[in-house]
Amino acid sequence: MTQPGYDALADTYAAMFPEPYQYPIERHAAAAFAEAAAGRPGRTVDVGCGLGHVASDLAGRGLDVIGVDPSPGMLAHARRLHPALPLVDGDASLAALPDGPIAAILARFSLIHVEPGEVRSTVRAWSALVDAGTPVLVAFQAADEPGPPLAFDHAVAPAWRWHPDEFARVLAEAGFEEAWRIVFRDKDYRFPMAQLLAVRD
Ligand SMILES: C[S@@+](CC[C@H](N)C(=O)[O-])C[C@H]1O[C@@H](n2cnc3c(N)ncnc32)[C@H](O)[C@@H]1O
């Protein structure tokens, strides 16, 4: 299980993104997610954890975090940068995750790399793994207009951006009800970005 694009560019990526968040609003979304996950039994799973910066930040906020990523190159950096962080080589299906309760799931800019039809089966798989009340935060490049996900020319790997309503609908079909969303736009970036928190019914 590999992610060739991220493997090839892992060193560049690590040099370009030394911090967990590019925008303050992302830090606030992560803090609100950490609050929703706090006190729940089990591990918080960072799906597509990349360099592990966000997982480490969440661990610093008191969560028991495990990172999952299919790129050995990104995981190598995560292990170097955050040696105390538990990490698993695996994809968004979470099939490689060790058994045990899941407190919460975070997937920041990783489901964009999963083919849209597979996103539906992926969130259904999550739904089967978690208890009622489990929060899920997804972050993604957004589409302005409602409609099906749009492929875009991501610099590293094939990617799709979603209208937040469409992502919320896919989550709802899998049993995750939207609690809140933040959609923001930076003047120097070409797409809006969405952070969407949903909770398992
Ligand atoms: C843009 S990076 C985001 C890293 C991190 N989540 C963050 O917020 O900084 C995307 C990550 O998703 C991972 N990824 C790609 N395909 C994936 C898949 N099918 N399942 C889970 N993660 C995937 C990549 O290896 C990469 O580390």
Automatic annotation (TrEMBL):
Q: What is this protein called?
A: Methyltransferase domain-containing protein
Has the keyword Transmembrane helix been applied to this entry?
no
Q: Where is the Methyltransferase domain?
A: 45-130
Source taxon at top rank: Bacteria
| GO MF annotations, alphabetized | methyltransferase activity
The GO annotation for biological process reads:
methylation
Give the organism, scientific name. Answer: Tsukamurella tyrosinosolvens
Ordered alphabetically, the record's keywords are: Methyltransferase, Transferase
